[in-house]
Every structure is written in C-alpha cells, then in structure tokens.
C-alpha cells in the first residue's frame, strides 16, 4: 500500500517571520571583539564604515550594520611598527590617515587598504595627536609637545613649533581653518595661527593633564577635558584664562566628542560615557558603559545616530545617541538631590550593571543636579601610561 507523504504548506505570514528571524534588526550594531586593545576610532564621513587602530600597530576597517551578523571586516593593515595612536578619514572618505608610537604618519587608500604615503620619521618623538585640516593639510602632535603641520602634496611640514612642555593630546581647528588649538599634558591649551604660521599663546595652566579639545556653541566656546574629571571652558578670543569650569562626577575626562552645539559626550577611566550639556552645565545622563574598564576613545558616526567606544575590554561598542539630537536643557537652577542615579539615555546603558552606577547623580532629573552643575548656569560670552 502506498504511503502518502504529508507536506507542510508554508503560509505567507510564516515566511515573513522566518525572514525576520534570519535578518534580525538590532537597535545598534553588534559589539566587535578585538585581539588587542583598541586605542583609536574614526567613522567614515559618508558611509557606515568604522576604522580602528590598536596597540600592536594594526589598523582595521569595518562595515557595520544593525542587522544581526552583518558587521564585516573590509581589510586590515599592519604597516605601523608600534602602537597606532590615532586614525582619521579625509573629508571625502577616500583616504585614511594614521599616526603611531613609531613616529610615522601613514596615508592609506581607504577602499583598497593599501599604503599610499609613509612619512617614516615625521617626528623625533612618538606621535600622539592627529587632525586632518583639509585634503592637503594635516596637523600632528608628539609626546614632547611639538606641533607640526604638513603639506601632504609635498610630504613636508611647513610649521614645526614646540611650546608645550608635555605631550599634545588633541588638536582642533575652527571652521575657517585659520586657528589650531592644542590640548597638552602640561595642563595648557595652545593657540596657533595657521594662516600666518606662527604661535599665538598658551592658556593658564589648569589642574591635571588637558586630554582633549573641542569647539562648541557655534564657535563661541572651546571646551577642554582633563585628567582630573573637569571640563574647562574658554571664550573664543579669550584663550588666556577659562571663562568657566565644570567638575564632573567622574574619575577623568579622557575624550570629548561634540554631538550638537550644546551637548557633548565624555569618556572616562571609570568606563562611563556621559552626555553633558554646556552652558547651562548639566550632566544629562549616561549613554553607555564598559563596566570597570577605562575607555580609550569615543567617536560619533556621520549621521549622528551612533557613538562608538573602545576600552581595555578589547571591545568596540555602539550606542544609540539619537535622543541627544533633540534634547534641550533648561537654564532653571535645579534643586539638589543626594540620592539619584545617572539617567540612562539608551536602552543599552546600565544593562546588567546592577548597583555599579549607584551614587552617580542624574542631573537631568527635574529634582536633582550635581553641586558643580549649579556653578555655571548662564551663557555669558563676556565672562568669565599611554600606549
């Protein structure tokens, strides 16, 4: 007797569910696990591509995606002999610049992953900072405080100035690309005239190392992070002394990244990424965390949708920062609150952390603020071992 084979007929709804399971869409891309600690990150200016440089001198390029399992390594490079300390894309995304402890500046074809230019002895000391000013001009800073500005068409420097007494940690330029600002381990911010190719001044010495520098508030304010956990704020054209300072409840401010003209994100040795409003000064919440692991660097994606972070846990993590784009902070002087937690600004913030963040104050709560946040609520333009 012949047996009848029973076949299950797949319904359209079941097919759709199957496709969704296969192509699960996440809020953020999956974490990227590395074999070594990542020092530096840079997002492509136009595409969902991320570059990373590690302590072994290797550089990796990834295409990231919110679809499960779709993060993809595009290429890797081992041209640097020692730790890669900074990577940065050109404005068109076609070139990737990098600097290293090996004192070299490299320029790579970002598509092919091939080395295009090597300045093997760009500095006499290890290079720590990098800024791509435009398609032909690049600024670099080294461990002994020397700033160099390069004409990449000729592979020669047309500025070489040493006015800092310690390492240069970061470099920023104004929108007109006339002024370069440097933060340094000697506690000062340097001001350099790029057009006239000369040194202008150093700020007063601040407490701790100045670890980072960014221009905010439509170019009217400059913010520096420090190893003491304080943000120092300068008026534009008032670089000699700070107009304001804001002490975060953090071990340090090792990296700052502007998200809007008013809000920036900070990375710290305590592993927390904080969102901070500048003038009025408020810690508005936590974007994410590497639990108990010092964060090396954070970077913002081209569409302002994600923040990426790298830490000593050898993970590259992605955080949703879309809420920050529409956030505004009132000038209203809030009441102090002794017991409160830092507000989570993404679904992944505080995930599985338990009581790790207890005691971190939520300065976005209408009933709470840090004591330091009350010091500067008015925006008054006239006032006031690395790898």
TrEMBL record:
GO cellular component terms attached to this protein's record: nucleolus
Compositional bias (Basic and acidic residues): 1-11
Which stretches does UniProt call biased (Acidic residues)?
371-387
Repeats (WD): which ranges? 120-160
Q: So which domain of life are we looking at?
A: Eukaryota
Q: Does the keyword Repeat apply?
A: yes
Protein function: Nucleolar protein that acts as a modulator of rRNA synthesis. Plays a central role during organogenesis.
Report the protein name in the record: WD repeat-containing protein 55
Q: Which organism is it from?
A: Tachysurus vachellii
